Each structure stands twice: as C-alpha cells, then as structure tokens.
Amino acid sequence: ALLKGGNIPLFSLESRTPLADCDLVGITLQSELTFTNALELLSAGHIPLHAADRKDGDPLVIAGGPCAFNPEPLHRFFDLFLLGDGEERWTEILTILRDVKDRGGGREDQLSAVKDLVGIYDPADFEPRYSDDGTVAEIIAKTERKKVEKALWADLEQSLPLHSFLVPFLQPIHDRVSVEAARGCTRGCRFCHAGMVYRPVRERSRDKVLEIAECGLQVTGYEALSLTALSIGDYGPLDGVLGDLMDRYERERVSISLPSMRIGGLTPEVTRQILRVRKTGFTIAPEAGTWRLRKVVNKDYSDDEILETARWVFGRGWSTVKLYFMIGLPTETEEDLDGLADLVRKLAALAPAKGQVTVNLSPFVPKAHTPFQWCTQDSEEVLRGKLDRLKGKLRGKKTQVRWGRTDQALLEAVLARGDRRVADVLETAWKSGALLDGWDEYFNWDIWMEAFRTCNLEPEWYACRPRDDKEIFPWDHISCGVTGEFLRREYEKGLKGEVTGDCREAGCRACGVCPPEIKARIPELRTPIPDGNTGAPGEEVVREPDRSLRRIRFVFHKVGDLRFLGHLETIRLFERAARRAGVPLAFSGGFHPKPRITFAQALPMGVEGLKEWAEFELTGSWSADLFRERMNACLPEGLEVLSAWKAPLEGQALNARVKFMEYMADFPAPIDDLGGKIEDLMGREAIPVERVKKGKTRTVDLKHFLRGMHADGNRAVRFTLSVSEVGASARPQEVLDALLDNDGILTDGIRVTRSGLGFSILGDRSAGRPGWSRVWD
Questions:
Q1: Which of 46, 375, 465, 633 maximizes the CB count within 10 A of its CB?
Q2: What is the CA radius of gyration of the chain?
C-alpha cells in the first residue's frame, strides 16, 4: 500500500532496481494459494499483467516451482514456464538471453531463442479446445513439440557453488541453513505431488553435504542447520553425515534439525546426534487414521508401528510431537475417522505428564500428476461434517487440534487442476482484492465466489467432479516424467487398498521417469540400524558454561534503515556477524546455550543510535583491533563498530551501569513556539502517561525520568532521560507525545536519535595486578 500510494515500483533487494527495469523476473510457484501474490508482484513492479501486452523493454517473466506443472490457470500472466530442475536450465537461459541482448535482439528474439529448450513451456505454443460439457476436447500443438518434458539435473554432486546467501534481518519461519541431501522420493505416496514431479531420486554424497553445510554456515552465520529431503530417513549416509556435522559444529552450538521422519526411519544414532546441541521438534505424519486407509494412499504402516515410534520418541526425552493427518481421502469412511481419533488418544496417552500431541488436520486436495488426479474432493459441507466429528472426539488435556479451512482447500483444488478459463477467475478475484490467500486472516472466500459467478464457472465442477480414464486433463501436454499409465495403475490399486513397494526395495515399478544413466546409479535405500546396535541413545545435553578468556567492549552506531530492527533482531544480527567473522564466542550453559552478548541499553525500534555500547565474551584472546576489523567486514550498511577495547571479565554488568540517555528529535517542519512548549512541559508537577501491556493498564510519571530538555532552533529538541536502579525509564515517543500533545500518535516524519549514554564510573578494581585496567572505561 505504501509503494502504491507513493507510486514507487517494487524493487529488488540488493540494488533496489525497479522490477520493470530488470531483463528478467523469475517467480517460484510453491503453492496454488500464492497465485494472486504473483499477480500483485507484477502489478507492484509496474510490469504489464498480461504477457501479450509486454513490449520490448519489458522484462521476460518466467515461473518455476512445483505448481508450474499445471501452468494453465496462469498461462496469460507469464511469458514462459521453467519445468523441473532449475540448475539444469537456468544458467543456460541467462547466457542465451544475454547473448541475444548483446546482439541487439528484442523480446521476440529472446523468447524464440530459449522456448525450445528442454523444460521450457511457452503457453502460446498450445491451444486447448473444449467440449460442450466443459471438459477439454483436445490440446492443439502449434509447433512440432507435442509434449513438454521437464528439465532434469542428473547429478546433484555438480550443484552450483554457494557464494552468497540472503539472510533476513527479521526472523522468517525457516530461519536456518537448509542443505538438500536428496531430491526425489521412491515411496510413492499416491496423494503426493512432490513425490511424483521431483522423481527420480538423487542423493548428494556425504562429502558434498558437508561441503555445502560448511560453506552455508560460513557465509550466513546461522546457528541452525537442516538436512532436507522428501524422505530424509531414506538418505543413505544420514547417520554418518549427522555424526560428522556434530563433531564439527557442536563446539559452535550449531543445532541440526530434520524434516518429518518416516515411521521406521528414526534410530538411536539419529537422536543421539540431534541431542548433542539442543532438542528440536519431532513430527510424525500417519496421514490417515487406519491401516486400511493408509494402504490406500500407499503408506503401509500399522497402528502398532506408529505407536512404537511415538513411545520411542517420548522415551528419549521429547515432550511434544506433531501429527499430520488428511481428511477426505479416497474411500474414507466414518470408521477411518473414528480410527484417527482412537489413534490420537493412544498417542496422547504415551506423552509424559506435561507432554502434548499437536494434531494437524488438512483437507485432502487432489493434485495434477498424481495417482489421485482422477479423484473427487469432498464437498465443503462433507469436509466440515468430518471436521466437526473429529473435533468432538479429539478433546483432551494433552491434545491440541489445528485444522485447515475447507474453503481454502476447495480453492486450492480448483487452481491445482484448473484449465485456462480459471485465469479469468484468478484475475477477477485479484482485481477485487484477493491477496495472501494462504493466510487465514486475509483469505476472503466471498471475493472468490463472486469471481466464479462473474466468470460463469463453478468451483465444485473443477474440484468435486469425478473423472474417468478417458478425460483429457488440461495439463496432459506437460510431462513430469512419470507416465499416465503408471499413475492410472496406482490409482486403481489405491482404490483396492493394494500397496506398491518402494522401487529401491521391490525393484523397478516402471513409472517411466528414470533415464538409463540415472537408473544405473539409483542410490541404495538407507537401512536403519536396529535399536541396541549403537549403544544407548543420547539424552539432551545440559551444558556447562564456557570459560570466558576475553571480554571485548565496543561502541557502535545503528543508523539508516536498520533503525527499524527491534532489539532481538539486532542481537541476532550481531551474533551471526560474529559467526561469519570467526569470533570465538563464549556461550552460557543449560539446555539451550546462548552467546554471551550484552547490550548496555535496548534501542527503541525506529530510533537511531550514534554511540551504543555492547560487549562480547570470547573463548579466545582476540585483540580489540582485530575484532573491530572483522566485525565491520561482516556487518551490513547502517551498523558499524566505531571503537573497541579489552575490558576486565569481572565486575558489574554493563547494562546495570547505565544512568541516563541523551536523545535528539528532528521535526519535518518548524514547530510554533517550541521553546514555550518545552517550558510548559518541564514546569508541570507531573507528566502521567498510560501504558498497556497484556491487557493491563498502568500509569507512569515521565517527570521522574525527564532530566532536561531544550530546543535546537524551531525544528529540533534535545532531551535527557534518566534510568532507575531497576533499569526503568521513559520512552522517547512518550516524551514527544507529551510535548506535542499527540495523544500517543507521533507526528509523521520525526527522526529520533539516541546520541549518547551515561554510565556510573567504577573505581580501581585492579588490586595492584599489573596489566589490568586501573579505571573501567
């Protein structure tokens, strides 16, 4: 809204280049519920929404990611789609586009130069025609290419080198280095879109994973690492990789987490390694409530196996476990729902006294390129009835239940299996305000329903209508490598409750995806070591505090855009900069050790600081000059260490010595009678302000903290706030509100800066010891 209000185009992060000035814009489509976000990005970037309206000088707009495998609902908004592995095509595309541009070629020349590459889909090359009943009658290819195959990166060992990594200052959900250990999956879950489109399975070697992890941690300074794969429990070198990583990074307190572990994949060695730094969460995904229904989706795990896994996890010190289930799966009955509730009760009974199981219930969404692409989705009414039935049966003090919205699931199904006509609905809904549809607080189903009515389409026709084996799907000209014949066989086996074994155990299942060079070197499936073969599993470590050998105290400034970082984000930024700089941080003890970093006083968000104080405790004897040099090389613009020096390890904490703070405020326009306003404020017997925290209101008298104030012309003031013995003080916003009588709302455009801190001076603590500071600071 701010960008649009100021007519400012959306711009890139590093160079702040407007998107419309870029040669190419790429958007990853990870979820159907982000499709309106993609339209918003184009609009905010001042890029014509329709590919047909873009001219020379406009960027090429390319989509990728898993949702690109049914590109039809987005066909008019993107110039091209990149299907499959980006490593295989991306650098080639960039090289070709640059060469065409250097030769003076225009937009059409660029499109023509790359559109025939394997994995590149140009919607203009195909034209669907529809039958009277609304189904696709045929898809006409306008070129010799009748089907678009995905790009396939055969060897993960040849991955692109990692030179840089965007590290957000604020905390995203996945706030860690993620190292892809394997791509693809052979388990064959019939609902799983990723399990089909990312085939065949490929693994990185033990040495390659370690190399990427080392580089990732070095360039980011992250304190957490995740090994990712669709089925990490099947990754062959898992046990050895975990051991190597923890041997290398345990001292630096880098924790390791794993995604959802399949039943049977957890071993004592895996848990022992994870617990060496800190305990991370644990997730089990039964998907269905009964063994019968799990076999329908090709997850052949009995209730006893699931319960044994939970018993094992709770017995190793975990107190909380997340469970993931789907409702509305094909052939689901009331007995399956009751079985789900019964299974959850048994799992909750295994949790410790203060333990908990979190149950996540998601409506089943049939996806393209899966065996269940022929399935119907339960209607909203049916899904709500199933949710109500389960919520009534899942009440318990150890059970927390979360569920997905049925209307969101219906929309997701429409966009996942939609044809080109759905593009009208998408654009109409977006123009009416649909945005951030994956967030409950922003999703507005009424907007979408009105869009469907306007476009004369019914969402249930796309989501809830049964398909037969003769129907042409809107995506039939797109190939993920898995054949339609294999998907149909799996669908029919699923309806019968028949299980298809993993091809790495039971032999090739003839899905059609493996070229000969990959089929010859499919990695072996990890065989978990049985309990007892690796000794007793580890327990979460209670660590002793590090012995600090050096305290470095320093003054820094925090200015510019970084004034909008909160105190916790600032601490995290300094820690990660120190890790990148190689500073040997000392850590506290306990279950979750923290670096010993102390700030003199938290800087309010939005306030710049010219002379802020902080100190690090180190386990090595670094010089202050080296510390300043290394830190400044790793800090972003707006943060700089101005000076640093060695300080004694003993004595009163830095933050306990702050006695006053000096501020200055610059106003965007002259303030009438500013001196008189200051005189009036300082002459009051009391300056009461109300503070509300957690619903409770209390009154604070600013007079106790405001030590002085004077005008600097008619557009600035300087004032000093004292700090009490317990660290309390007034907030600069409260003082300015009282001065300007703003009733708690600061005037737009005021720039507030903390110009200095005042400390109590501690006397000689050296006790005659040579080399020790005679006077602190």
A1: 375
A2: 30
